[in-house]
Write a structure and sequence with these properties.
Distance between the termini: 45 Å
Order of helices and strands: HHHHHHHHH
Largest sheet: none
Number of strands: 0
Structural class: mainly alpha
Radius of gyration: 18 Å
Helix content: over 70%
Length: about 190
Amino acid sequence: MSLFVFAGSAQLAALPLIGAGFSVFTILITAFIVNLRFVIFSIGVQAHFSHLPAWRRATLGYFTADFGYLMYTSRFGEVQTEAERKNDSYYRTYFMYGLATGNWGIWQAGSILGILGASQIPDEWGMEFAGTLALIAVIVPMLDHRAARWAAVVAAMVAILTYSLPLKLNLTAAILAAIVVGILADRSSKVMR
């Protein structure tokens, strides 16, 4: 699955549904909704890569994940003028390709190690919490501007308030709320400038 679906959260959402025998449609819709955060990623880097042909943007989009996006935007957060972009587009593009494909390779190697070695880790170690800690470590540095902080606060509140929803739909509701609030907060900060 990791070779085709390069999105850990979608895999984590889909696996219980597959195990419970849900329809393919339900599984695909769930994975789609969980991955809506990539819409925010795309909006965040659109100005940096809009000059690339569609096939290169699609390739870059497949390989881009949370870590690559975070590292790229922390290094190249400012959108340049079109002339400046043309001058260093080669560097920016291949910097992102390097991050994205490197991250993809490490993900695949980790997936293979996990598949082969997971049965060797005792249940009492409680490793399921490690995924949550890793996600927190990735998200916290991304909260460097007002829109991101608002989106995170709203996502946390919605996830908690809707916790009783079946099929962990509280996470879907939290993601959708975060997208809306993040976009609105970003737009309002641009209007205020």
